[in-house]
Amino acid sequence: MKTCFLHARTFARLRPRLKGLEAAVRFVTLDDAGKAHDGWTSEALDALPPLDMAFGNADAFFASVARDFMTAILKSPALDWFQSAAAGIENPALRMIGQKARLYTTNHTQAESMAEWALWQALDVLRDGPAHRALQAAGKWERVKAREIRGSRWLVVGYGSIGQAVGRRVSALGGEVTGVRRSPGPAEGAARLVAPDALMTELPRADVVLLCPPHTPETENMANAAFFAAMAPEALFMNLGRGALVDEAALMAALDAGRPAFAALDVTRTEPLPADSPLWRHPKIAITPHDSSDTPGTVAGADETFLANLARYLAGEPLTHLVDPAAFAAG
Questions:
Q1: How far apart are CA 299 and CA 49, in angstroms?
Q2: Does the structure show a pLDDT above 60 at 331?
Q3: Catalytic pick from 22, 90, 148, 271?
Q4: What is the distance between the terminal CA atoms of the chain, rounded to a whole angstrom?
Q5: Active-site residue, from 259, 290, 312, 321
Q6: Are strands 53-56 and 208-211 parallel, antiparallel or unpaired?
Q7: What domain range is 115 assigned to?
Q8: Parallel, antiparallel, or unpaired for β 36-38 and 25-30?
Q9: Are residues 221 and 177 part of one domain?
Q10: Which of 132, 183, 212, 317 could pair covalently with 240 via S-S, beta carbons 3.0-4.6 A apart?
Q11: Mean pLDDT (the chain, rounded)
C-alpha cells in the first residue's frame, strides 16, 4: 500500500472521487491546526508514517501550516512522487522537494485564470477605465475615447501554457499575437513565433507586452531601461511571470517619462510588497497581490491534474508534466 500526504481540506474535497482506492492508498492528512490524521478512518496520528507520495496545492501552500507541510515531506525517509499545483519550480522549498522526489510533476491549468487576468487588465487600460471611474465619481457625463482588443498587437514573452491561454483569448477577440520563446513548433493562439533575440525589434510595434517566462539568470531584469525605451509610448506593460524579471526602478522612471503608458503587475520583486514601496502609489501602475490564479477553477484544475496523475502512477504509466531531475540540480 502506498501512502499519500495532502492537506485535510483537499482530501475532504476529493474523498468522493477517491473511493475504491482504500486498499491501494493510505491518505494521510494535515489540518490547519497542524494535526495529522488517517484520511480514511480519521484516526489521529502521533507521528507521520513514511510518505510515498504528496500533493502540494493552495490548501497547503497558503495555509498557516505550510512550513509544517513542507517540512514533513522533506523529513520523510524517501518520496517517490510529488505533485505540485504550481507550474514553477523556483520556490526554494519546492526545489528541495524536487531534489528529494524521484518523480516531480507540475500543473498548468492555472494558465486559464491567469489569462483572464491579462484580459481584465488590458481591457481596463484600452477602454480607459480610470477615466471613466473618475468621471463617474465626479458625476460628469463625458464621452471617453477608447481602444479595442480587436486590431491590437500583443507581444507575449515566454509563450508557454500561460502565453497560449492568453493567445487563444486575444486571437478570438481579433487581436494579433506574437509569441517569444526559444523552441519552435506549434503555438496555439499566436500568429507567429519569434526567438528571444528578436525581442527588442518586436517591442516598438506592440500595443501590449506581457511577460510570463520563468525566472532564470538569463531573464533576470530582462525588462530594464533599454527594454522600456523600446516600447511604444501608448503601450501597456504587464508581468505575470516573476518579479525579478523587472527592474522596478527603471519601470517607474520609464512610466514617468511617458513610455510605456501603463503597467499592470501581478508579481513584484519583494513579496509581500512592503507598504512603503513606491509601486503602490504610482499613478500608472496597477498591482494585484500575486493572485491572478486564485480562482475556484484553478483549484479544480489542480485537483484534476493530481487525480489523473494518481491514476497513471498506480497503473505504472508515465506521468504528465514531469520535470527533468536536472532542473533541480543544486546551484
A1: 27
A2: no
A3: 271
A4: 36
A5: 290
A6: unpaired
A7: 111-287
A8: antiparallel
A9: yes
A10: 212
A11: 97
- Same structural domain for residues 208 and 101? no
Cα–Cα distance, 276 to 100 (Å, whole number): 38
DSSP reduced 3-state for 290: coil
Q: Is 290 in the active site? A: yes
All three cell numbers of 257, joined, read: 517619462
Read off the pLDDT of residues 234-246 as tens digits, 9 standing for 90 and up: 999 999 999 999 9
Instruction: Please indicate whether residue 271 is annotated as part of the active site.
Output: yes
Is 213:158 a contact under the CB 8 Å cutoff? yes
pLDDT band at 330 (very low <50, low <70, confident <90, very high): low
Both 202 and 300 in one domain: the answer is: no
Report residue 186's pLDDT band, with 50, 70 and 90 as the boundaries: confident
Partners of 262 in the β-ladder: 236
Structural contact between residues 186 and 216, judged by C-beta atoms closer than 8 angstroms: no
The beta-strand segments (E) located in the chain are: 2-7, 25-30, 36-38, 44-45, 53-56, 81-84, 103-105, 153-157, 176-180, 192-194, 208-211, 236-239, 262-265, 285-287
* Structural domain total, the chain: 2
Per the DSSP assignment, residues forming a β-bridge with 109 are none
Q: What is the pTM of this model?
A: 0.92
Q: Note the pLDDT of residue 329.
A: 86
Catalytic residue among 7, 169, 242, 248: 242
Distance from C-alpha of 118 to C-alpha of 303, rounded to nearest angstrom: 24
The phi and psi torsions of 141 (rounded to 5 degrees) equal -95, 90
Residue type, 62: F
Which amino acid makes up residue 54?
A
User: Is residue 188 annotated as part of the catalytic site, yes or no?
Assistant: no
Residue 91 and residue 162 in one domain:
no
Identify the residue whose cell numbers are 513610455: 259
Mark whether 211 and 103 lie in a shared domain: no
Q: What is the pLDDT of residues 120-135, one digit of tens each?
A: 999 999 999 999 999 9
* Cβ(238)–Cβ(264) below 8 Å: yes
- Helix/strand/coil (H/E/C) assignment for every residue in 23-56: CCEEEEEECCCCCEEECCCCCEECCCCCCCEEEE
